[in-house]
């Protein structure tokens, strides 16, 4: 995208943000989890419909679900990590990951 187009989009976004009230923004933001859940469900179904496999957590185990409906247990899943709103988490990378 060229600089002129990028600048125009940024200006339009600023104008739009002034038109939306804080309440409207919060209403739209509240929809994000539901939209994300729907997107993941659709992606899972699409992958399985195309004959693929899906890795997911079920009953405390990491499992591989195949298009034919078979499920292969990979291992017991790790406990989930709770992260508070606004918290930033960083992952330490080893040398192999950095050079890749």
Helices and strands, in order, run as: HHHEEEH
- Low-confidence blocks of residues: none
Shape: extended
- Strand arrangement, major sheet: 1-2-3
Given the structure, what is the number of helices?
4
Tell me about the largest β-sheet: 3 strands, antiparallel
- In total, the number of strands is 3
> What is the structural class?
alpha+beta
Radius of gyration: 21 Å
Mean pLDDT: 85
**Distance N terminus to C terminus?**
27 Å
Can you tell me about this structure?
The protein has about 100 residues and is an alpha+beta fold. It is built from 4 helices and 3 strands. The chain has a 3-stranded antiparallel sheet with strand order 1-2-3. The radius of gyration is 21 Å and the shape is extended. The mean pLDDT is about 85.
